[in-house]
Amino acid sequence: MIEFRGVKRVYGRGEAEAWALRGVDLTIKKGEFVAIMGHSGSGKSTTMNIIGCLDTPSSGEYLFDGVSVGELPRTSRALLRRNYLGFVFQGFNLLGRTSACENVELPLLYRGENAKERRAKALHALDLVGLSSVWDHTPAELSGGQQQRVAIARAIVTQPLVLLADEPTGNLDSERSVEVMRLLKGFNDKLGITIVMVTHEEDMAQYAGRIIRFKDGHIDQPT
After folding, report:
1. How far separated are the first and last CA of the chain, in Å rounded?
2. Is the pTM of this model over 0.90?
3. How far is CA 157 from the centre of its chain?
4. pLDDT value, residue 71
5. How far is the CA of 193 from the CAs of 97, 104, 220, in angstroms?
6. What is the pLDDT of residues 125-134, one digit of tens each?
7. Pairing mode, if any, of strands 67-68 and 85-89?
8. Cα 178 vs. chain centroid, distance in angstroms?
9. For residue 152, with 0-12 CB atoms within 10 Å meaning exposed, 13-18 middle and 19 or more buried, which class applies?
10. Best-predicted range by mean pLDDT among 25-29, 68-72, 76-80, 86-90?
C-alpha cells in the first residue's frame, strides 16, 4: 500500500540546510496498523506529511498502491489525498459554529456530493463512533473525547484506504485516549482500514500491530 524507496527530505540550503529524512526505506502493507515513534526532529512527522501528500521527497520515491506519487501533478496528489486518505489530528480541527454532523459532511461537500447523500453518510459515520445522539451539537457542547470522535467520523466518512492519525490522543486524558484507540483498532480490524499513527505515547503505540521508530532521519529499528 505504502512504500518509500530511499526517501530523503532536506529543508533549506547552505548553512540553513536541515535534513529531516536521510534515505528511508519503508513498506506498509494494506490492512496494517502501524505506529511511528521518535523524538522531536527524528523524521516521523515529515514521513507522515509525505504519506499524506502534504509534502514531497527531495529525492527517492514514494509509491501509493503501486503508483509513484512524486510523478503525479499537484492536482492528482490533491485528488489522491481527497479520495483515498483520511486525517485525524491532535487538535481536532472542527469548525466551531457548525454541528457535529455538518463537520463530518465537509469532505463529502468537497467531493461535490448532494446534501441528502452527505447527511446520510455523515449520520452513519457518527453512529460508527457512538455519537448519533449528538449529531446536532456544536464542538463547544462536546467533551474533548467526543470532539476527537467527531474528527474520526469525518476522517472515515469517505471510506478511505488509509487513515493517518497524528498524535490522536495528545489532548486527551487516559480514559478518553483508550476510547479513541479502541475505536481506531476496531476500524482496522473490522473495516480493514490501513492506519498509520504518529505518537509519543508507548502505551497507545501498543494498540498497533507494528511500531516503527525513527532517529535522526533514519529508521532506528528494522521494519
Report:
1. 15
2. yes
3. 13
4. 85
5. 30, 18, 26
6. 999 999 999 9
7. unpaired
8. 18
9. buried
10. 25-29
Could you give the C-alpha distances from 213 to 63, 74, 121, 124, 223, in angstroms and in order?
Answer: 21, 30, 36, 35, 9
- The DSSP letter of residue 16 is G
**pLDDT at position 70, please?**
85
Q: Are 183 and 194 in contact (CB under 8 A)?
A: no
Separation between Cα atoms, residue 171 and residue 90, nearest integer Å? 6
CA geometry: angle 38, 59, 10, nearest 5 deg: 55
Q: Which three cell numbers stand for residue 61?
A: 520515491
Q: Which conformational region is residue 46 in: left (phi greater than 0), alpha (psi within -120 to 50 degrees), or beta?
A: alpha
Q: How far apart are CA 41 and CA 19, in angstroms?
A: 9
- CB within 8 Å of 114: residues ≥ 6 apart: none
Q: What angle do CA 33, 36, 40 make, to 5 degrees?
A: 160
> Rounded CA gap, 178 and 207, in Å?
9
**Distance, C-alpha 21 to centroid of its chain:** 19
Phi, psi of 158, deg, nearest 5: -90, 5
Q: Are strands 194-198 and 33-37 parallel, antiparallel or unpaired?
A: parallel
Residue 139 DSSP label: G
Residue for grid cell 496494517: 32
Q: What angle do CA 110, 158, 204 make, to 5 degrees?
A: 120
